[in-house]
Amino acid sequence: MDREIKEKIKYLLYPRSVAVIGASRNPRKIGFQVVYNLIKDGYKGRIYPINPNADEILGLKCYPNILDAPDDIDLAMIVVPASKVLNVLNEVVRKKVRSVAIISSGFSELGKKDLEDAIVNICREHKIPLLGPNIVGIINTNNNMNLSFCPHLPFKGKITFITQSGALAIGLIGWTWASRIGISKLISIGNMAMIGFEELIEFLEEDRDTEAVLLYIEGVKNGRLFAEVSKKVSRKKPLIAIKAGKSLRGAKAAASHTGSLAGNVMLYETAFKYAGIVSADGLEDGFDKALALSLQPPLYGDNLVVVTNGGGAGVLSSDYAEKFGVPLKDLPKDLVNAVKELIPPFGSPNNPIDLTGNAYRDDYIRVLDTVFRHPWVDGVVSIYVHAAITDPVEIADGIAQVWRNYRDKPITVCMIGGREVQVANIWLRDNGIPVYPTPRRAISAMAALRQYGLFLERERGNGGMVRNKEISS
Ligand code: COA
């Protein structure tokens, strides 16, 4: 891709001024919602509604044509029917707008490849990056930009979600609030006529607001380029991919949804492995892993310890640890002896360490501190099963207090208890600790941290050696 176009991708995500072409006074139209969202969610740049039939929209002066806008425009968002897009785009070019995104549907996904190509050619000729068409919009929580018809901004955080399905972006926003999953950007890429995964991933390599990139992929434009760019970026920040369209029916659905060729599943898995991309099995797994990778350091080394107050949860964790490739091992003798001193005689001092049902905040603190401090230990999964005699918020606070002193070793937490542990969950996530409702999900997230750690070890030529202080600093 042309260097000038690449350099202008920043204007799609951090524009100082946005023109909405097809802005409307009718609250039932997408052109209304996009302007409304920019204002309501507190976008920090300047907004220029464009519509030949209105003088004012939502209190903002409206211009009949983008050429009449009194300012330089960083990003033009087009929301007029597909048949009008070419005309509008010619005006955008004359205005020397720096980047373009198109919400409108009705292009290659409907067999109108010629129309899509014509749009791409114009943008390419004038060196303007084009996002879409057929997208739900662009969201950046860092500048409060909800340039989309999603209902509101997601919960603020460090995950950037790039999705070929706009509807998924809309649906997941409420979920990110309920689960405290922090999002930096939501980028709907639709038909990927020009800008696709490859270009965005490369841009995000240097994006200070992104710690992990989650991809919802139906098909990529250029497999080889995708793998190479992803590998380069993975060395700096983790990528997680949800590959959709794996079944025959799913592949057919992908073709009519975004015009994507879903491709060979094995090829994708091989490319993910090569590039260090952590593969996820669906949305829940994708966000679970992205949450861990956006908040925690990678797991360097295989010495994982589970600390639980519930025996059954410990047994299940052992099973899942084996299943997900991070099997639990016996603890070194000195660590067993140290733990033995801290737990009741009916507890278990070996891996998984069972504190038993009457473990309070101070018991968690003492054992977790002893475990984290031991040089043999590479990472910890801490489990709490809610009991009437203990306060989950106190336990969560204890866990967070210990981890603060050992930030180079990863932790994931499982809190079992439904509504009773909700406040504790929020407390943990706000303190940078990923928390899950089941042992399976907490262990799977830890396994993702190990997978990423292994990739980094391999890349640095350590051949799978144990934690490297230089890496973890
Ligand atoms: N410049 C600026 N505004 C223009 C214009 C132009 N050249 N030509 C028309 N407009 C105005 C219209 O007058 C209208 O404003 P109004 O309400 O004041 O009359 C506004 O732009 C929108 O045009 P309209 O013809 O009413 O279209 P619409 O709002 O019904 O639909 C789309 C437009 C883009 C939303 C629709 O064509 C579409 O593609 N929808 C699907 C979007 C989608 O699902 N994307 C993928 C998500 S995953």
Give the CATH H-level superfamily of the largest domain.
Succinyl-CoA synthetase domains
Total domain units: 2
Largest sheet: 7 strands, mixed
CATH topology-level fold name of the largest domain = Rossmann fold
**CATH C-level category of the largest domain:** Alpha Beta
Count of DSSP H/I helices: 18
User: If you compute it from the alpha carbons, what radius of gyration comes out, rounded to the nearest whole angstrom?
Assistant: 25 Å
Helix percent reads 40-55%
Termini separation: 35 Å
Strand order of the largest sheet: 9-8-11-10-12-13-14
Look at the structure and give the mean pLDDT. 93
> Which spans have pLDDT < 50 for at least 5 consecutive residues?
464-473
| Bound ligands, each once | coenzyme A
Content of β-strand: 15-25%
Shape: elongated
Q: Based on helices, strands and strand pairing, what is the structural class?
A: alpha/beta
CATH architecture designation of the largest domain: 3-Layer(aba) Sandwich
